Q: What sequence folds into this?
C-alpha cells in the first residue's frame, strides 16, 4: 500500500513540475493588442489575463486545450502542440453572454456588467453609478449637487460608505463642507467610459477609506476608433453637445483624444434650474518598449439653481405644486480640475510595476434651506457651504507572479499617499444667496492619508485563495478661524485592515465563494477635534457567502448572503455645524441577480436586493436606520442587432423608515425608462424617454422639522424632492 501511494505521489509531482510556462500575445484584426483577455487551461483550470501589452504566461503541458475569452470578441480554443511563444488573433463580434467564462476571481460578476454597459449605454454621468447592481442614487439640489447614494442597506449620503474613483483618482472628498465622503461625478463624460470595476463589501486590499458597503472605479477609454459629435435636445429646455476628437492618425502607435461636453437644462421645476455645465477631458497613451505611459487631464465647471426639498404639507394645502419651491434661491456652483500621470512597466514575464501620480483642484459653493423659517423667522434659514481644496496623491504597487508547480501565486505590494489641503471650509447663515448674516464655522483643514498594503492571490487550479493586509495612517489638522485665540489642532490615527477570500469552481459553470474583511471610513476632521474619542476611523467588518451558476451558456445566476457590522462613530452634520453620535449597526441581506440572453442580441436582466439594517444600541421598534433601503430591484430587456439598439428598464425602491421608530415612512417608487436608437455607418439617431408612464415619485425624502413663514409652530414631516416626470429627448451623433 505504501509503495502504491509513493508511486502516485511521484507521478503527481512529476506532472506538476513537468509543466512549462507558455508565453503568448493576443491582438485584434488590426494588430492592436487586447488587454484583459481571460486565458483558461481546460485541462488544469489554471487561468490568467493578458496585460497592457496583450501578453500572457501560463503553466501548460503539451496537449492541453487553451481558450481565450473577452467581451466583444469570439472565443478562441486550440490544442497546444508546441511551447514556442505564439501570437493569436481574436475577431470582434457582437456582445454575447456566452463570451464570458466564470473563473475563480474576486469580482467575476463585473464582466457581465461590461456587456450591460455596451447594450444599455448611459445617458448622463449620474446614470453611470446605476450600472452597479443594487446601487441607487437620488438628486435633491438642482442637478449640480452630488447624488445621494444607497447600497446594501446604507443611506451613504453622498459617499460615506462607497469608495468611488476614476482611473484610480479618488472622487470622495474627506472633511467636505457639505458632508464626509462627498463624491461628485459630474466631471465624467459618459461616452468616454470603457468599463466599470466594482465590488461590494470591504474585501479588497487595494481600497481603503470609504470602501465599506462597496467600491466603484470607472475606467476611461485609452483610445477612440473615430471622432464623433453628438447633439441632444429634449423637454424642459434641455440640450447637450458632446464632441470626441481622435488627435492622431491611424498608423500612429500612440493614442490621444480629447472630449468635450456642454449641458443645459431648466428641469421640470416651476422655478427654472438654469443648470449649466461644461466638461473637457483629454488622454494620451504612449508605449515605450515595456513601459506604458498615460497622461490625462480634465476640467469641469457647473452652476445651477434649486427648488430644494419641499414639505408635504405645503403641497397638500395647495401652497405650492409638486415642482414648486419654498426658497427658490437655493443652488450653487462647483468645479474640478484633474491631472494624472500613470506609468506601468513590465519588468519581466512575471512582474510589473504601476505608479499613478495625480493632482486635483476643487471649488465648491452650495446654498441650501432645509428648515425655511425655523431658526430665523425674519430672514429665513438659508445656509452657505463653501470650500476650496487641492489634492495631491500617489499610488504605486509592485506585482510578481510565482509559479508553484501547476499553481500560481500572485503577490502585490503597494503604497498610497493622499494629502488634502482645504482652505476656507465654511458654514454660514445667508439670505437670498447675497447677504452673509452669520458665520457658523470657518477654518482650514489639512488631512494626510498614507497606506501600505500586501496582497497574495494563490491560484490553485479550481481555487483562488486571497489574503491581504492594509495599514492606513492618518494625520488630521484643523485651524479654527472663529476661535478667540489661534488654534492649529492635530491628531494622528492608524488602523489595520485584514482581508481573506476563498473562491472555488467545482465545474466550469459553477462557482462558490466566501469573502471576509475589515474596512473603515474616516470621520470629518472637525469631528475629531470636537470629540475625544477613539472612533476616529470606525471599522466595518463584513462577510459574503455566494454562488455564481451558469446552467446554460447564456444564463447567469448570482445569489449572495452578506453581513456587515459598523462600529460606533461620530457624524459631522455639515448643514448645522454640529456633531451627532451614531451607534453601532448591523446590516445583513441577500443579493440576487439574473442575466439571460434569450436570442442573438436580446438580453434580459434582473437584480433584487434585500437588506435588514438595524441599530444595535436601541430597543426593538426604535432601532430602524432612517432612509436605509430594505428592498430594491432593477432590471429590463434590451435588444441590439444590425444597427438597432433599444431597451426598457425599471428601478424599484420599496417603502422604508424615515425615522428610528418607523412612524414616518419614505414612500417607495417604480420608475420605467426607455431608449431606442438606430445607427448607420456614420450616423446614429436616438430617442430617450425617462419615466415612461409619468408616475409621481419622490427621488429623495427626509423627515425634517421646519416652519413656513407665518406658521405658528414647527412641523416635523416628510420633505421631498420630486422625481422627474415624463421626459423625452432626441439625439443624433455623427462619426468622422
A:
Amino acid at each position: 500500500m505504501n509503495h502504491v501511494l509513493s508511486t502516485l505521489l511521484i507521478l503527481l509531482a512529476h506532472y506538476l513540475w513537468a509543466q512549462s510556462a507558455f508565453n503568448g500575445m493576443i491582438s485584434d484584426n488590426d494588430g492592436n493588442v487586447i488587454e484583459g483577455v481571460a486565458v483558461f487551461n481546460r485541462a488544469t483550470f489554471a487561468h490568467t489575463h493578458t496585460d497592457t501589452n496583450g501578453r500572457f504566461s501560463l503553466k501548460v503541458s503539451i496537449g492541453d486545450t487553451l481558450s481565450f475569452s473577452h467581451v466583444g470578441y469570439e472565443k478562441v480554443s486550440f490544442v497546444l502542440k508546441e511551447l514556442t511563444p505564439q501570437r493569436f488573433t481574436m475577431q470582434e463580434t457582437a456582445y454575447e453572454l456566452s463570451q464570458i467564462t466564470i473563473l475563480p476571481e474576486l469580482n467575476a460578476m463585473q464582466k457581465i456588467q461590461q456587456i450591460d454597459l455596451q447594450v444599455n449605454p448611459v445617458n448622463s454621468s449620474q446614470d453611470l453609478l446605476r450600472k452597479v447592481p443594487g446601487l441607487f442614487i437620488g438628486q435633491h439640489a438642482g442637478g449640480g449637487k452630488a447624488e445621494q447614494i444607497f447600497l446594501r442597506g446604507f443611506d451613504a449620503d453622498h459617499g460615506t460608505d462607497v469608495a468611488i474613483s476614476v482611473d484610480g483618482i479618488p472622487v470622495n472628498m474627506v472633511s467636505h463642507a457639505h458632508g464626509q465622503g462627498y463624491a461628485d461625478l459630474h466631471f465624467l463624460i459618459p461616452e468616454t467610459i470603457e468599463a466599470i470595476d466594482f465590488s461590494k463589501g470591504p474585501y479588497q486590499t487595494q481600497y481603503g477609506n470609504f470602501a465599506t458597503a462597496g467600491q466603484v472605479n470607472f475606467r476611461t477609454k485609452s483610445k477612440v476608433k473615430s471622432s464623433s459629435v453628438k447633439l441632444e435636445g429634449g423637454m424642459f429646455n434641455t440640450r447637450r453637445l458632446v464632441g470626441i476628437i481622435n488627435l492622431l492618425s491611424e498608423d500612429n502607435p500612440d493614442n490621444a483624444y480629447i472630449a468635450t461636453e456642454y449641458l443645459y437644462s431648466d428641469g421640470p421645476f416651476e422655478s427654472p434650474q438654469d443648470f449649466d455645465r461644461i466638461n473637457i477631458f483629454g488622454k494620451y497613451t504612449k508605449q515605450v518598449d515595456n513601459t506604458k505611459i498615460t497622461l490625462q487631464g480634465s476640467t469641469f465647471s457647473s452652476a445651477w439653481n434649486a427648488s430644494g426639498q419641499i414639505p408635504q404639507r405645503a403641497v397638500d394645502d395647495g401652497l405650492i405644486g409638486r415642482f414648486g419651491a419654498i426658497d427658490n434661491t437655493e443652488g450653487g456652483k462647483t468645479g474640478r480640475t484633474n491631472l494624472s500621470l500613470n506609468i506601468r512597466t513590465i519588468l519581466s514575464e512575471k512582474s510589473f510595476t504601476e505608479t499613478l501620480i495625480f493632482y486635483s483642484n476643487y471649488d465648491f459653493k452650495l446654498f441650501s434651506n432645509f428648515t425655511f423659517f425655523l431658526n430665523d423667522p425674519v430672514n429665513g434659514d438659508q445656509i452657505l457651504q463653501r470650500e476650496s481644496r487641492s489634492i495631491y496623491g500617489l499610488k504605486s504597487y509592485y506585482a510578481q507572479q510565482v509559479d508553484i508547480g501547476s499553481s500560481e501565486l500572485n503577490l502585490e505590494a503597494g503604497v498610497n499617499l493622499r494629502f488634502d489641503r482645504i482652505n476656507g471650509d465654511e458654514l454660514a447663515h445667508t439670505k437670498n444667496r447675497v447677504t452673509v448674516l452669520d458665520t457658523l464655522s470657518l477654518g482650514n483643514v489639512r488631512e494626510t492619508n498614507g497606506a501600505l498594503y500586501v496582497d497574495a492571490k494563490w491560484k490553485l487550479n479550481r481555487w483562488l485563495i486571497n489574503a491581504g493586509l492594509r495599514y492606513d495612517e492618518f494625520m488630521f489638522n484643523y485651524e479654527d478661524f472663529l476661535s478667540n485665540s489661534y488654534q492649529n489642532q492635530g491628531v494622528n490615527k492608524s488602523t489595520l485592515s485584514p482581508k481573506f477570500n476563498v473562491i472555488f469552481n467545482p465545474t466550469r459553470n459553477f462557482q462558490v465563494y466566501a469573502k471576509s474583511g475589515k474596512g473603515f471610513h474616516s470621520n470629518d476632521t472637525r469631528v475629531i477635534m470636537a470629540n475625544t474619542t477613539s472612533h476616529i476611523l470606525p471599522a466595518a467588518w463584513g462577510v459574503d457567502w455566494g454562488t455564481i451558476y451558469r446552467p446554460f451558456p447564456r444564463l447567469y445566476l448570482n445569489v449572495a448572503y452578506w453581513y456587515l457590522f459598523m462600529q460606533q462613530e461620530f457624524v459631522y452634520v455639515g448643514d448645522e455645524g454640529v456633531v451627532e453620535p451614531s451607534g453601532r449597526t448591523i446590516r445583513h441581506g441577500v443579493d440576487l441577480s439574473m442575466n439571460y440572453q434569450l436570442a442573438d442580441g436580446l438580453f434580459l436582466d434582473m437584480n433584487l436586493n434585500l437588506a435588514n439594517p438595524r441599530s444595535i444600541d436601541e430597543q426593538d421598534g426604535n432601532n430602524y436606520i432612517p432612509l436605509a433601503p430594505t428592498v430594491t430591484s432593477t432590471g429590463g430587456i434590451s435588444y441590439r442587432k444590425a444597427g438597432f439598439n433599444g431597451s426598457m428598464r425599471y428601478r424599484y425602491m420599496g417603502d422604508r423608515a424615515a425615522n428610528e421608530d418607523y412612524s414616518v415612512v419614505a414612500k417607495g417608487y417604480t420608475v420605467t425608462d426607455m431608449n431606442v436608437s438606430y445607427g448607420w455607418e456614420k450616423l446614429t439617431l436616438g430617442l430617450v424617454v425617462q419615466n415612461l408612464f409619468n408616475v409621481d415619485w419622490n427621488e429623495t425624502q427626509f423627515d425634517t422639522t421646519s416652519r413656513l413663514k407665518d406658521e405658528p409652530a414647527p412641523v416635523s414631516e416628510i420633505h421631498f424632492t420630486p422625481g422627474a416626470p415624463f421626459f423625452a429627448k432626441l439625439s443624433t451623433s455623427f462619426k468622422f
About this structure: Residues 397 and 414 are 4 Å apart (CA to CA). Residues 8-17 have pLDDT under 50 and may be disordered. The two ends are 74 Å apart (CA to CA).
